[in-house]
Amino acid sequence: MAFKTIDDIERERHHEEKGKMRKEISEDINEVIANINILKKPKKEKKGFLGWLIRIIIFLLIAIITVNFILGNIWLLKFLIKSLFLNG
User: Fold this and answer.
1) 33 Cβ neighbours under 8 A, 6+ residues apart
2) CA-based Rg of the chain, rounded to a whole angstrom?
3) Structural domain boundaries of the chain?
4) How far is CA 18 from CA 2, 15, 28, 31, in A?
5) With contact defined as beta carbons under 8 Å apart, do 39 and 33 qualify?
């Protein structure tokens, strides 16, 4: 029969307290992760009518600017060619 000393009892109590502390901490961490959605992807907000309208307007503006730039360059090129060869 083994005798337990006060040091053995304190050591066992210390290990039990560590185990309880680890268990409480792990439960708290799991609870926080479950509640805050750290591991899940955030939900995207759906674009409403206003969002689509803004996208269409921006696309149309870019298209108009691009077409205007191309046609303007063609007009300038025609003008320069006419002025170079007709005035000479």
Assistant:
1) 39
2) 38
3) 1-43, 45-88
4) 25, 5, 15, 20
5) yes
Name, in order, each residue with C-beta under 8 angstroms of 39's C-beta and a sequence gap of 6 or more: 33
Task: List, for residues 32-76, the tens digit of each pLDDT value.
Answer: 877 776 556 666 777 788 888 999 999 999 999 999 999 988 888
**Tokens standing for residue 73:** 């360059």
Whole-angstrom Cα distance, residue 23 to residue 31?
A: 12
pLDDT-above-70 percentage for the chain: 89
Residue-level pLDDT at 48: 82
Distance CA 8, CA 16 (A): 12
Dist. CA 40–CA 32, nearest whole Å:
13
- Say which amino acid occupies 34: A
- DSSP string covering 68-85: HHHHHHHHHHHHHHHHHH
